[in-house]
Write a structure and sequence with these properties.
Layout (H helix, E strand, L loop, with lengths): L5 H10 L1 H7 L16 H6 L8 H5 L22 E6 L14 H7 L7 E3 L9 E3 L2 E6 L5 E6 L13 H12 L16 E8 L2 E6 L5 H8 L9 H6 L16 E7 L3 E6 L13 E6 L2 H13 L5 E3 L3 H9 L5 E16 L11 H10 L2 H8 L5 E3 L14 H4 L10 H16 L6 E8 L2 H15 L4 E8 L1 H10 L4 E7 L5 H9 L13 H12 L3 H15 L5 E14 L2 E2 L19 E2 L2
Parallel strand pairs: 1-10, 1-11, 14-15, 14-16
Antiparallel strand pairs: 2-3, 4-5, 5-7, 6-7, 8-9, 9-10, 11-17, 12-16, 12-17, 13-17, 18-19
Amino acid sequence: MLKLPRLLVFCMIASLAIFAVACGSDEEESTSSPAPATGAAAVAAEPTPTPPTATANEAKIGEQAADLLKAPEANAKSGGTLDYAWVAKPPHYDMHQSGTTNNCTPQCPLFDLLVMNDPLDFDRAIINGGLAESWESNSDGTEWTFALRQGVKFHDGSDFDSADALATYNRIIFPSENVNSRRQGLFTAVESITAPDANTIKFNMSRGVSGGYFLQALASGFNVIVSEDTLKERNDDLKESPDYPGTGPFKYTGHVDGEKWESEKFVDYWNTNLPYLDGVNVYHMSGSAGAQQRVAGLLTGQFDYARGIDPQSYYEWVQDAPEGIVPVRFPQTTIIAMWYNTFTDGSIFKDAEVRKATNMLFDRDSFVTATKDTRPFFAGFGFSPYFSQYALPIDEGRKRPGMAPTGPEKDAEIAKANEMLAAAGIAEETPVRVLHTNNGWQKVMGDITAAQVDASPHFKVSQEEVEYSIWIEKTEEGDFDISMGPLVYAFADPSAYARPWYHSEGKTNFSKIGDDKTDSLIDQIDAELDPAKRLALTQELDLHLDTYMPLSPLLWEDFVDGYQSYIKGYDFPGMQGLYNAERRGTWWFDK
């Protein structure tokens, strides 16, 4: 078989990227539009987000804010309605059964959490009181008790108490058969929940859990508190109910399906500092045309905030922003990865050396270059999110297998990978089936994945492109040799991603592989209460996973937004965990 030069193959695929993105659609997370390719120079000119350092964050994990949340500026004033340009409508209205910010963006301002991430904290490590005003645990982390805020009203005028918190968390952690609780897996240590009195809720654990993890799990933005009466009245079914009452800073006033979601200030909100705005309108504009609408609306003043602008506009604005417009780039909680079939009889990927060699074939920087005009990504070294306090330093991660930059260093790494494949006994043109989705940028990446594997003389690749839902099904069933696609996680704590991804019994461990040391390290991470020790264990795990490569981390996803400079009251550069701080109560207009 004649193999085309690797660089030529990549250039051919990159030249098709715009067509593929324009023709594809991402069901829940499409946030960008096609734009003319401008070459690798733009990537070099684009400032790379700098992750926070572990040392700076260690002491903050689980830190509790003492005062009621308010805008940080002394001159904050009230008034104005926020017009917020967004991507797509909610697929349904049940926050507990949702995994997309298409729900959270319009609905999160309507609800409160038991505890919440501080939206003013860059690292999302400080925990604010929500409907719990204080909390404590016993010495071994097996009992967590929350004192609930009194005098809180739902939007329908009813009173909030522990029965509502209990009903909510029983639904999330111990759901009925008709409820697909998307965050149930965050609470595997919870054995039971009780309400000793009207103002207290208690979580009883089967094992100790760290405050850094458990409080972040509670603060996951979809864990909204709803009333016990609402769940009873609507037969535990909220998917078709856009108007079920919350206790949040804004209350629902109406919506036009697929077009607009409207809410107004809740005048009886328990935090008398908030909200500053009179209301929030969220406009839904999907597809590539929608991205251009969001940019145009921002430039003309129709929108105050636009999420998911096209990266080309972002790159231009970083260099020379239109008057009054601020561009911002921030990490999303998504990994793009490759999984290997290690469990089908006869699979060549049962051999760890074959997986490690295949991982070295991937040119991460070429993926970033090929997709930079449709969606920004960060090259995927390591097994922890690049921006989290648990990740290894970037300069160290760049030395890991598979991370050589495009050029002579990568060519040498690929040559070494082919030597490893030969030593492992892999014959030339061994058939390999690459599975990926056919949606937009995922199709582009799937094509690049297939081309870079096929460029090895040891492989002969066939591709299978499927819809996202089918990709999930086939990947879970092991119907692939290599499978490429995205995974979203709740927040950047190792207990939120390491157990489901890397533990031998993890739900989304699609390679279905692990070892005793990995499982032991994850168990220790989950049970360790000391932040510094959890950090050390997580970085030990990160390095250990290189020894057998359960998956190949390819990219970490970033978002690019734009907003009017008069919006204040929020740490816009620190928008990681956007699901978890979306209430907009502290936002205000300086105009």
